[in-house]
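SAMPLE LOG
Freezer: B-3
Tube label: C17
Construct: single chain, 134 aa
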Amino acid sequence: MKKVYETKIINTGGREGEVYSPDHSFEHKVTSPGKKVENATNPEQLFAAAYSACFNGALELAMSQEKDEHPSTVTARVGLFADDVEGFHIEVTLEIHNEGVDHDRATFLAQKADQICPYSKALRGNVPVTLEIV
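STRUCTURE (predicted):
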């Protein structure tokens, strides 16, 4: 297997700190969900941004392979859950919209994208992910 890309992000301060790349081309304050800190994000928002972009890229590839290209939008909803037994976990819903595509075809394309997307592969069997055609 050939590595095609690698990135490096540094965190200081945990959920009440910052994340940045070594060259500082990427810098964000981070905070816990629900806290209001100006210009800050949280790990769940960063994960949702990354997963929605990755999945939509996989969806575009799936559409290209099927010669069925349409504008698409993917919205990732990431829920953070706490329980007394296992601590914290996340669950994800991907809202997938393919303009001008019927529900059955959109479902087929989303399922194909789910097999392509590296994030979906990494999460499979570990994190509940729901694909919702909207």
